[in-house]
Design a protein that fits this description.
By secondary structure, the chain is mostly helical. About 75% of the residues lie in helices and about 0% in strands. The model has no long low-confidence stretch (mean pLDDT about 90).
Length: about 100
């Protein structure tokens, strides 16, 4: 079954929520459920093989919770550039996740 871009965005939002909650818990005892562990493993594997810029975007947006504006300021680029990178990330994930399904 082919994964949709909408589903990828939803899964990335779930990862972002997990990483943001994990960082806010003092004792860091948050243990993800098996379904979330599989999701983390699936995306981590793909991101490790992604181009460096896409790795950076993934880490900033989903692991650190940065906004488009914050990333643009940090990287000295426009928000349009960050949005283009985001689109490239979705395309990269879409292609590679569907490649694995076949």
């Amino acid at each position: 079954m082919e994964i949709t871009k909408k589903q990828i965005k939803k899964e990335l939002d779930n990862l972002k929520s997990f990483y943001l909650m994990k960082n806010s818990i003092v004792n860091e005892k948050l243990k993800p459920c098996n379904k979330l562990l599989l999701l983390i493993e699936k995306y981590s594997k793909l991101i490790e093989e992604a181009p460096l810029k896409l790795q950076g975007l993934f880490n900033e947006k989903y692991k650190l919770g940065s906004t488009v504006q914050q990333m643009a300021e940090k990287w000295n680029v426009s928000t349009v550039t960050v949005n283009r990178m985001q689109t490239k990330l979705y395309e990269y994930l879409f292609e590679n996740l569907n490649k694995e399904e076949k």
